[in-house]
């Protein structure tokens, strides 16, 4: 795996983890489905970084899976924000963390 790919994945994993921690700290009751999709993303990144897929095609396949899970998670965010589960000050932080992850998915 190219060094820039590994570094990019580690930064993406950290952004996903920060978003998961924030959601977990909100005590909003039942975790939204999006949280579990983020957990899948984080786990897939971890596995890929540990096993160090060497082929460009491996990286492309991982990114396809991450895109799929990210867009599925995005379908769920409306439920979290519109239900009033996050107060306005925390909503800004949530949107900031969301933007950090979303930056990887143009």
Give me the Rg, rounded: 14 Å
Given helix and strand content, the structural type is: mainly alpha
Distance between the termini: 22 Å
β-sheet strand percentage: under 5%
Shape: elongated
Order of helices and strands: HHHH
Helix content: over 70%
Largest sheet: none
Tally of extended strands? 0
Number of helices: 4
- Poorly predicted sequence stretches spanning 5 or more consecutive residues: none
Q: Could you report the average pLDDT, rounded to the nearest whole number?
A: 82
Give short descriptive properties of this protein.
single chain, 106 residues, mainly alpha, 4 helices, 79% helix, elongated
General description of the model:
With 106 residues, the chain is mainly alpha-helical. Helices cover 79% and strands 0% of the residues. The chain is built from four helices and no strands. Helix 1 (3-25) runs antiparallel to helix 4 and helix 2 runs antiparallel to helix 3 (56-82). The two termini are 22 Å apart. The mean pLDDT is 82.
Q: Any chance you could write out the topology, listing elements then pairs?
A:
Layout: H1 3-25, H2 33-51, H3 56-82, H4 88-102
Structure at a glance:
By secondary structure, the protein is mostly helical.
């Amino acid at each position: 795996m190219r060094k820039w790919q590994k570094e990019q994945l580690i930064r993406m994993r950290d952004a996903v983890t920060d978003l998961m921690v924030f959601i977990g700290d909100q005590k909003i009751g039942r975790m939204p489905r999006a949280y579990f999709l983020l957990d899948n993303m984080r786990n897939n990144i971890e596995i890929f970084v540990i096993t160090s897929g060497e082929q460009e095609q491996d990286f492309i396949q991982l990114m396809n899976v991450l895109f799929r899970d990210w867009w599925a998670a995005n379908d769920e965010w409306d439920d979290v924000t519109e239900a009033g589960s996050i107060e306005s000050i925390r909503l800004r932080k949530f949107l900031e963390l969301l933007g950090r992850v979303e930056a990887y998915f143009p």
